[in-house]
Amino acid sequence: MNHDTPLSPLPLRHLADVRCKVLTTRQLRQHGVTAAETTERCRPGGCWQQVLPGIYLLHPGPPTSEERLHAVLLYASHRGPTVPRQGSADAPAEAMITGLAALALHGFTETPPLLSLDRIEVLVARTRRLRSTGFAQIVRSAELPVPQQVTGVPTAPVARALADAVAGLTDASAVRRLLTEAVRGGHCETPVVVRELSRARLLTRPHVVDAVDTLLAEGRAQAEQWLYAMVRDHDLPDPLWNVDLRLPGGPLLGGVDAFWPEHGVALEIDTRAPRPEEDPLHSAFDQKREHLERLGITIVRCLPRTLREAPAQQATVVRTALMASPDREPVAYVVALPR
User: Fold this and answer.
1) Could you say which of 61, 76, 100 is where a domain stops?
2) 268 — phi, psi (to 5°)?
3) pLDDT digits over 34-70, tens only?
4) Edge-to-edge strand list for the sheet holding 120-125
5) What's the pTM?
6) 227 falls within a domain
7) C-beta neighbour count of 29 within 10 angstroms
8) What are residue 49's phi and psi, to 5 degrees?
9) pLDDT (tens digit, 9 = 90+) per residue, 62-106?
10) Pick from 61, 82, 109: which residue ends a domain?
11) How many domains does the chain have?
């Protein structure tokens, strides 16, 4: 006896009421449809079709975008056992759409339409025994991100989907357009994008590095415009803009984006993209800050996101540092030169 077949299966006509006309072999059996009936309906000229192994479309025409996405997710969720891991249940791992299809779901305009994609990438745990087939492209990961529900579809977060998309692209201009849209469109911050690309080991590819360099330059230019607006709109004293600091006749102390010499306050826009192996306590930024603070100069770290989303808050931080200058030790004499 087949334990998947219910004692009182739903009549076959009830399948016409299924909202999404994509079902697995097991789901068909639960409706009382035998393997022989399924095979008969999927013959050439029949009313059904098999779109992926064990996944059936209950109409003869081409699948819609929603049906293709649903078919890929069903394939990834219902096929291939999970390799048992110590301390974990042998249950199917979570699956989510990633790559170009995920970016399209997130609203990117630089991606091809969903229906035009030859393959739809689906992200699963590395322990899944699955293979890519048809329009289902399996992407494995040791750690799965928390999926986001986009139009009811479990979808990888933008940064992860972007990295998976870039991994399959060799066109430098296409990579650059996607990275630019991710940041300019407000989907994610530049450091997050770069960190995810680094995690995926894509920063060894010259065309990806070139696109990242362009992205970082554009991001810095935009952040500088936000900084200028913050100083102007919140009536802060005019600083020296974009200067290198050095001791008279001594070595270079480092560059800053704004410097108030009479107050001993410097500001730097922090657009770093930390690498996983970087020790934050010994980063270049922190080393420079420690050096300047030993000379009596207060350095304010300023994130692009704060300048964009909370300029008043950032202005308050700067104003507080300026007002506190009389209470600090005298500042060592430093030379400020244009960068």
Assistant:
1) 61
2) -130, 130
3) 999 999 999 998 999 999 999 999 999 999 999 999 9
4) 136-141, 120-125, 96-98, 153-155, 148-150
5) 0.74
6) no
7) 19
8) -150, 150
9) 999 999 999 999 999 876 544 444 333 333 448 999 999 999 999
10) 61
11) 2
